[in-house]
Amino acid sequence: MKLTVFFDEPYWVGVVEVESGGKVMAGKHTFGAEPSLQQVWEFVLQELPALVERLSVGVTANKAPRKAVNPKRLARLAARETRSRGVSSASQEAMRLELEKRKQERSRLGKEQREALAARKREIAVRKAKAKHRGR
Predict the structure, then answer these.
(1) Whole-prediction pTM value?
(2) Where is the composition biased (Basic and acidic residues) (predicted)?
(3) What residues contact residue 77 under an 8 Å CB cut-off, 6+ apart?
């Protein structure tokens, strides 16, 4: 699991990348103003588990098997990673797929609600028409 916090005009954004079973899943959290270390820790401890649970769409990860890395090289790689900005392309793809899935779900729910409302209105109209023909 990897959390990247960066400034994406005009807000600070955190992107969580989770790798499991050869798939990369990613989620996005908007912090707003620049988050303090305390706010980041609160996010990690309180909100991150719920965010990770909501992730369902993943992209296959194209990673080569890892071999032993010299500790000095590992330190350089870690420093380079902290200097670099942004997220990996696999996580961007995973976030895009997750967004599309949620969009389809919202549109499906909206359509169901519209249909239910139309059915209710039809039922009311039918009842009114029957009441008019009863002669009361």
Answers:
(1) 0.49
(2) 95-126
(3) 69
